[in-house]
Design goal:
Elements (H helix, E strand, L loop, with lengths): L27 E3 L9 E11 L6 E11 L3 E3 L1 H9 L8 H16 L3 E8 L8 E5 L22
Antiparallel strand pairs: 1-4, 2-3, 3-5, 5-6
Length: about 150
């Protein structure tokens, strides 16, 4: 990545929700602490997508952890990207892993993991986890803090 300043597409602008994840543009900005190994966490406790079989909404609590290298993802563009899944049909596994892989492929951090804690579909909660590889030595990675599904109590 060059040291050329990056002008984010969404930051400080009025931006419509993309119609699909494929149309969503993620903005990346230079990491202000690129010589430091540290962790960034995004939590999306009200994430939604659509069941590919029934078209009914699916709900999840997503937690994305990453150790940036040269860039960081701009949070408004990430919010718009995640929001674009509201009209996207996908199995929990495909949605969760696809989000993690796209972020990893585009941003190229040291390390990235995503936990998708999905609410029950057909009476069964499905949790999906993906990470790019081993945790880098010396990186503090706290528990994602999302308890397993317990229903009403």
């Amino acid at each position: 990545m060059s040291d050329t300043p990056i002008s984010p597409l969404h930051l400080g602008q009025s931006s419509a929700l993309p119609a699909s994840p494929e149309e969503a543009v993620l903005d990346y900005v230079p990491n202000p602490r690129k010589d430091t190994l540290y962790l960034v966490r995004f939590a999306a406790p009200e994430f939604t997508s659509l069941c590919p079989v029934t078209g009914q909404p699916d709900f999840a609590h997503l937690v994305i952890d990453y150790a940036p290298r040269d860039t960081i993802v701009e949070s408004k563009s990430l919010k718009l990207f995640l929001g674009s899944f509201r009209n996207h049909n996908g199995f929990h596994e495909d949605v969760t892993v696809g989000i993690g892989q796209r972020l990893f492929d585009e941003m190229q951090p040291h390390w990235l993991r995503i936990g998708g804690y999905w609410y029950p579909r057909g009476g069964i909660p499905i949790d999906v986890f993906w990470q790019s590889g081993p945790v880098p030595g010396g990186l503090w990675v706290p528990d994602q803090g999302v308890p397993g599904y317990r229903g009403r109590g």
